Amino acid sequence: MSFDVYLQDFSDVRADRSESVGQRVLAPLLDARGENVVTADGSAAVYGAGDAPLDGLMFNHIEGDLAWDVIFDAAVAGGWAIMPIGGPVCIVTEEQADSVPEEFKADGLVLVRTGTELRTAATGSDT
Questions:
Q1: Most buried of the four, 15, 91, 99, 100, by CB within 10 Å?
Q2: What is the side-by-side strand order in the sheet with 42-47?
Q3: Of 23, 76, 72, nearest to 44 (Cα)?
Q4: Radius of gyration of the chain (CA)
Q5: How much is the pTM?
Q6: 78/29 Cα distance (integer angstroms)
């Protein structure tokens, strides 16, 4: 099953995360085409990594546990909320809860501290 997982913020002013996320988190893991992050146990397609300004991402075709760590790390570095389609909005800091619009909280709001917690919240499974 392929999950679509979006990373975005809800502030009125969009910030460019090209350096903090694009260069520091994603670039070392991108394949030669810049379309997938590759980890020791899998990969994930990433959309938006080459955008300028970099102000949001989408991941799908997520395979392996370490890809969830990459998604989590990108969210932390970018200060983004994580929105897995069909799952609860995940936040990486308690302060983010106030910025998430009420209509996005309908499926829940979960504070995640690791890629494993993110995978569990997004998929409904801890395996």
A1: 91
A2: 36-39, 42-47, 57-63, 5-8, 81-84, 89-91, 109-111
A3: 72
A4: 13
A5: 0.93
A6: 17
